[in-house]
């Protein structure tokens, strides 16, 4: 994703993909602590094929969020994700910047 893609642009991708009949999930940063690289309200949209636009962490946890979004698309059940250096998944997904983030992922229609 190009850093020039802003939140509104990300939502435009979601609208376009939905209009094309794709199943789509929206991930939104809902809380941050410390040196989290993206602010609250940052978005990432994912379609059922794993295509995505936007950013919730500047590249630190996008892969993990995309995987969770695919599960949300399949199940329809939203979920809250949390990543940070105190979390055992932080080192696996690369959020070693010292911050923590909470990301809400939901299927949108």
Structural write-up:
- By secondary structure, this protein is of the alpha+beta class.
- The chain has one domain (7-108).
- 29% of the residues lie in helices and 30% in strands.
- It contains 3 helices and 5 strands; from the N terminus they run αβββαβαβ.
- It has helices spanning 7-19, 62-75, 89-93, and strands spanning 24-33, 43-47, 52-54, 79-84, 100-108.
- A 5-stranded antiparallel sheet has the order 3-2-1-5-4.
- β2 and β3 (52-54) form a beta hairpin.
- The chain is globular, with a radius of gyration of 13 Å.
- Residues 1-5 have low confidence and may be disordered.
- Pfam families: XdhC_CoxI (PF02625).
- Residues 17-84 form the XdhC- CoxI domain.
Summarize the structure.
With 109 residues, the protein is α+β, with helices and mostly antiparallel strands. Helices cover 29% and strands 30% of the residues. It is built from three helices and five strands.
Q: What are the low-pLDDT stretches, counting only 5+ consecutive residues below 50?
A: 1-5
What value does the Rg take, in angstroms? 13 Å
- Shape, principal axes of CA atoms: globular
Main sheet: strands, sense, barrel: 5 strands, antiparallel
Order of helices and strands: HEEEHEHE
Structural class: alpha+beta
Number of discrete helical segments: 3
* Percent in helix: 25-40%
Total number of strands? 5
DSSP strand content: 25-35%
The domain count comes to 1
Cα end-to-end separation: 23 Å
Spatially, the strands of the biggest sheet line up as 3-2-1-5-4
Average residue-wise pLDDT = 84
InterPro entries: MoCofactor_Util/Proc, XdhC_CoxI
